Amino acid sequence: MKIYTKKGDAGMTGLFGGSRVSKDDIRVECVGTFDEVNSTIGLLRVKLPAEHAWQPGLHRIQKDLMDMMSHLARPSDAKKINTNPIPEGGAAICEAWIDELEASMKSPSDYFLLPGGNEVSALCHLVRTQMRRGERRLVTLMKTDTVHPAIPAYVNRLSDLFFTLSRAEMDKAGVAEEKWQLFLYKRFRNDTPGKNTADK
After folding, report:
1. Could you give the CA distance from residue 94 to residue 92 in angstroms, rounded to a whole number?
2. HSE (CB half, 13 Å, CA atoms) of 108?
């Protein structure tokens, strides 16, 4: 079977179930963004040693993204059944990983940070921002069709996870974080009478 079909030459593409839409359809845009995310996670994994502690978790996330993309590519009225699993426990898995990482770090996550630090940390930030873009596209899609609630919850938590992974990498490497300013709720708390505002 050849990789090219020529069916998309006029700017249309097929969805799960057989219907065809424009290549700039919101569903295609949403799936395409998460495809970018998955590719960047693949690059991140290449930069890490094969025995790195993150490898199993990142591998699972890549497979979960493939499953989620298959469901996002299927309109709710499609007659064809999607047998790929929906990762319903994805958000909870992210939360457990975040908690584990934060417990191992020397300082809490109180600041907005300038992305960077080292190559692995910067790649984590790239995944985080791509994930946020995918989340925005997902919200737009959800205004037009139903989406299983486990998917937006997982996507939302994944961006938090990759922010935490970026911090964990810098903490392990002994690289100082470049802080911008305190999170909003921290600034509000420190602006109240009697609170120290020296860190603002």
Report:
1. 5
2. 4
Backbone angles phi, psi at 84, to 5 degrees: -70, 140
For 181, list phi and psi in degrees, rounded to 5: -155, 165
Six-digit token string for 179: 């802080």
The pTM of the whole model exceeds 0.70: yes
Is domain 12-80+87-190 in CATH 3.90.180.10, yes or no? no
CA pair distance 25, 27, nearest whole angstrom: 5
* Lookup: tokens for 35: 């495809």
Domains of the chain by residue range: 12-80+87-190
**Mean of the pLDDT values across residues 149-153?**
98
Buried-exposed string 152-169: b where 16+ CB fall within 10 A, e elsewhere = bebbebbbbbbbbbbbbb
One-letter-per-residue 3-state SS of 85-99: CCCCCHHHHHHHHHH
What are the tokens at 190? 């420190």
Is pLDDT larger for residue 185 or for residue 118?
118
Bridge partners for 22 per DSSP: 12
Helix (H) or strand (E) holding 22: strand 20-22
pLDDT of residue 200: 34
Q: Is the pLDDT of residue 42 over 80?
A: yes
